[in-house]
TrEMBL record:
UniProt KW Cell inner membrane keyword: no
Lineage: Bacteria, Pseudomonadati, Pseudomonadota, Alphaproteobacteria, Hyphomicrobiales
Residues making up the signal peptide according to the UniProt record: 1-19
Protein name as annotated: Lipoprotein with Yx(FWY)xxD motif
A Pfam family it matches: Lipoprotein_15
Keyword line: Lipoprotein, Signal
Source organism of this protein record: Methylorubrum thiocyanatum
Domain of life: Bacteria
InterPro entries assigned to the protein according to its UniProt record, in alphabetical order: Lipoprotein_repeat, UCP029720
Length: 127
């Protein structure tokens, strides 16, 4: 009986670890500027200095150049990962309270052309 309980507990811990890993909307990737958070396609993610209090300030024309890392309806936040509601009502992923974006001018995975854009207001999202 004890072995069965130990195996069940181990399986629950292993499942929890896999579920937590699967819930992360981004991963760490390598860029010429070092490790960065990247989306599922390997594109570099960025943060914006003008975002305040967990709210995205990049809307309208800004959002065309800096697409938000959107969260599907019902996405579950966990640990450092949260979601914010954008002005248009869509949900966006945030890491440590900072909404995340890609940059339209990054052409391939690992590109970091958005880093320092707009007088240094845009930054690579670091893990």
């Amino acid at each position: 009986m004890r072995n069965l309980l130990i195996r069940a507990a181990f399986a629950a811990v292993a499942f929890s670890a896999v579920a937590a890993q699967a819930a992360a909307p981004a991963m760490t990737g390598e860029t010429a500027k070092g490790p960065a958070l990247v989306d599922a396609q390997g594109m570099t993610l960025y943060t914006f200095d003008k975002d305040m209090g967990g709210k995205s300030m990049c809307n309208g024309p800004c959002a065309a150049n800096w697409p938000a890392l959107t969260a599907a309806s019902g996405s579950t936040a966990s640990g450092d990962w949260t979601t914010v509601t954008r002005d248009d009502g869509t949900m966006q992923w945030a890491y440590k309270g900072k909404p995340l974006y890609t940059f339209a001018k990054d052409a391939k995975p690992g590109d970091t052309t958005g880093d320092g854009f707009l007088n240094g207001a845009w930054h690579i999202a670091k893990p």
